Amino acid sequence: MIARLVLLACLLVMPRWVLALEIQSVKSDSGIEIWLVEDHVNPIVSVAFGFKGGSGYDPVGKEGIAQLTSGLLDEGAGDVDSQNFQKRLTDRGIDLSFSADLDDFTGRTRFLRDDRDEAAQLLRLALSAPRFDEEPVERIRNSQLVDIAEGETDPDTIAGRQMEELMLNGHPYSRPSNGTKTSVMSITADDLKQFVRQRFVRSRLFVSVVGDVSPAEAKAFVDQAFGALPQDAALASVPPIAPSKAGRTRLVDFPVPQAIVQFAEPGIPRADPNFFPAYLVNYVLGGGGFSARLMEEVREKRGLVYGIGTDLWTFDAGGLIAGQFQTDPGKVAQAIDIVRTEWRRMATEGPTQAELDDAKTYLLGYYPRNFTNTMDTAQLLRGLQIEHLGIDYVTRRQKEIAAVTIDDARRAAKRLFDAAQLTFIVVGPADQIKLPDAEVVKAPAQN
Amino acid sequence: MAKSIMTRPAARAAGLLLGAALALAVPRSVQADIFEAHEFTLPNGLDVVVVPNHLSPVVVQAVVYKAGAADGLPGKNGIAHFLEHLMFKGTKTLAQGQFSKEVDRRGGTDNAYTSQDVTVFHQQIAKEHLGLIMKMEADRMVNLRLTDAIVLPERDVILQERGERIDNEPGSRLGEALDAILYRNHPYRLPVIGWRHEMETYTTEDALAFYKRFYEPNNVVLVIGGDVTTEEVRTLAEKYFAPIPKGATVTRQRLQEPPPSAPRRVALSDERVRQPYLIRSYLAPSFRTAKGNEGYALTVLSEILTGGTAGRLYRRMVIEQKSALGIDTGYDGGPYDTGRFTFYATPRQGGDLAAVEQAIDLQIAALLKDGVTDQEVADAKRRLQISAVKSRDSVSGPVFMVAEALGKGRTLADVQAWPERIGAVTAADVLAAAAQILKPENSATGTLLPKPAQEAAQP
Asked: Which domain holds residue B224?
């Protein structure tokens, strides 16, 4: 059995698809680096791009500006107004969208290969000359205000906000990424224009192109779409997070039939040299779905939840280990107890050799499934660029995972998992939830 | 509004969500000349479709049982979904939970979902493991082992699932209430997951009875997609599925809808609602039940009304009149029996639901009076056909489209002819279909409203 597993792992380390997936690094005529995969199966091209600097970098008082901008770039640019911009996209079936996470502002576009000029032209306009006309700005602002209002009564959002407050000690990441009513109302067209000038610069740009294009066509597209952007602009960096180790439990009294529980403790950034051992240990504890201990103990054996899982959250400024589940109010205390017990067991014993082997073969075998369509492939490559993981990552990753030993995994478990540091947020009806040590608060009114 | 419930929580169900989302747009993506699907039938009646796609050395399997919640006995309609969960609990040769662990440790994923008409089990994995997942699916088609010790904790799980998906979500509770009045007789009026008081009574015997009645090879469509050839699939299907003996003929026996008589309404208020909205569904023929090309005409109609933000309702109600914050429509022609055509609208913040509803009524009246232009039809058809080309850029998407369509009584030829049939729709077809469907007596309207929090009791 052991021999079989070792053989399997060896086969998975360098499967054939690695050879098939040729990632080229090419430079456009104006000097922009592009990661390119040619795939001529369908007449389709996907482009994924991003700029370092997401909603975690929003100016104080203008929280929500990255997100608002992401909704407005396809609402009119240059001399094309909102309706005509949308019409030009839909007439050719060009998908174009933008989004902001804490660290990065990203975008993606997918189109038929014959429409690359039109797609490049619209993208260039969106990034370099968005109009921010009053009608679309008010319409999209209105949508964002509705999202904020809905968050006030959404138990997941309430739990997430409380967790940020307890864990992140006022760090810029702990601000709501869609802003507050006050901050979003205060954003002007000038603020939006300044955001665009400051953020969309070539020094912080990452681009990948996948699909039915030649290197020359990809270069031409990228120069047309991004060549007009300024080279650089100042952007203050975000300080490292210093997550709380206090291990508190807070119960937010809120009238929902089923309670929401989130839990977290300090984690590690993606750049940590022990990232893979930690990732594998988390897979065994809570990241591996039905192969994970938490799902087995809390759902399969006891029927306490529909789902439970944990993740390593990695940001430029640090990391967290976080998890969540929902259950009946009367079962919250029992489920939390099991989570703590499993957390302690993992810290003291680590995974078994068999669990580690299964986690490794999962992670090794999983990777090709990231490349089953052009947009997933493009977005994965963009992620590797933004994280500075290198163009050889796709093969290096396999070797590094295969090399993790049981001792590496046990060390990572001991270092990272500490039940005493786990903070729990419970949102539910307080009178039905028996947590004697919890600090009980009312759901806060926001504005 | 895709109606399906799955075994696993959403975090691990990206592929499935795609499948569920496609339920509304099943045929939206298929083009005959490049789709290259092949179909054959085993002697035991099991229908096999292969959809080759060589983007990555990965395969996708979907096993579709042509039985869903609407095929359950009265009081037991959630059994289809409960059984779906229990299918992961082991067989004569596989321990409880081992199915998923075998897939996981090879880097695959597996999941399942249940809708009113079908129960679908699916996996995605590196191509060299196709034989294994086919073998395990064939095994649980006949060898499922259930005991109360296994079944009863899982009943708690589905109750938690109901709490999470429906009881905790005002919008889901409105959807459930709307289904219950849109359909007055057909079991589509009942929730796929079941009513809580009935779920609490489900037994091992209930699940096994459903299994025995419907889980027969002659009631299954097996769809395999990805980096594989028809001959490879044929060899494996003959090895693993062909030995299963043919079962009794399975028929769907369902109560059908009476002729329409009056519009229905339901309003749900909840303290947690911050953004009111309105859903109005009209009963409509499905692709399978439609006479002529009504289903295709309704697909084009929806694209004209709200396809992208250039659709006429979005332009008029959101941008010009500013009566709505959002407006969408969808034609669900997928069901085995009666489908629906639905409008969704949210008013501007502080806006008035009655005003939005009136605006929709005026747009419908204008549509029925003036019809649609040839230009609108041509633009909508072109957009739909581009989306068909783009849908080929996926390994799992085409598999779920075929699985959904064939599981719900359509043929592979129907699926493959989709672009052609969309291409044949005329402005007159669109108007005729709209006039046939958009009648008040076909409709049920649901509104989601805020409710002021009750004032705290004074001491």
From this structure: 5-240
